[in-house]
Design brief:
Order of helices and strands: EHHHEHHEE
Number of strands: 4
Distance between the termini: 11 Å
Strand content: 5-15%
Number of domains: 1
Radius of gyration: 16 Å
Shape: globular
Largest sheet: 2 strands, antiparallel
């Protein structure tokens, strides 16, 4: 059995420039601002993404002290207008939620600016696909069976995909060999 911290994690993406090696299990953050399109998430994942996105927005507006150093905020902070980038991110989460009939509060998303794009690597998308599939296998087996048939997940519409490995801000830590975790 994997250590508790590893049960919801997945192995790294295929190797490439800057990619992490595949030969060890990884420890992952519980909090996630997905690079994947929100349509792949189950209900629990979509609601969590909405909440985490709103928290990230509050951090960018300096309205909270927690979460300030979360590594996934780096890509939003790197944009010339971080708050506008987060608003664009949340807007697409809201669109997916409304398509499913959820009643998320539109007023919580700030003004939308057109033309905002962030960069995401193919390796990051592959890493997140495996991470999500592992979560779905545990909490939504039926959706897992559907999603695993999709060979490549589309990115969140905010992201433009470029070649490369797992992003540098993705915090993954090798597990000591004596843990004997075999992975997914």
């Amino acid at each position: 059995m994997a250590p508790r911290a590893l049960r919801n994690c997945a192995p790294s993406a295929p190797s490439g420039v800057g990619a992490r090696p595949l030969n060890f299990p990884l420890r992952c953050h519980v909090v996630r601002l997905w690079t994947l399109h929100p349509k792949y998430l189950d209900a629990r994942g979509l609601v969590a993404l909405w909440r985490e996105g709103l928290l990230a927005r509050a951090v960018l507006k300096r309205q909270t002290k927690g979460y300030r150093h979360h590594p996934q905020l780096a890509r939003f902070r790197a944009h010339p207008s971080p708050l506008a980038a987060m608003n664009a991110y949340l807007r697409m989460v809201l669109v997916e939620a409304e398509a499913r009939g959820y009643a998320f509060d539109r007023k919580k998303v700030g003004p939308l600016r057109r033309g905002i794009r962030l960069r995401a690597t193919q390796g990051q998308l592959a890493f997140e696909r495996q991470h999500l599939l592992r979560k779905l296998r545990a909490r939504s087996p039926q959706l897992y069976r559907l999603r695993r048939r999709v060979p490549e997940f589309e990115p969140h519409p905010l992201f433009r995909v470029v070649s490369g490995g797992v992003e540098a801000w993705e915090r993954v830590v090798a597990v000591a060999p004596n843990n004997r975790w075999r992975g997914p």
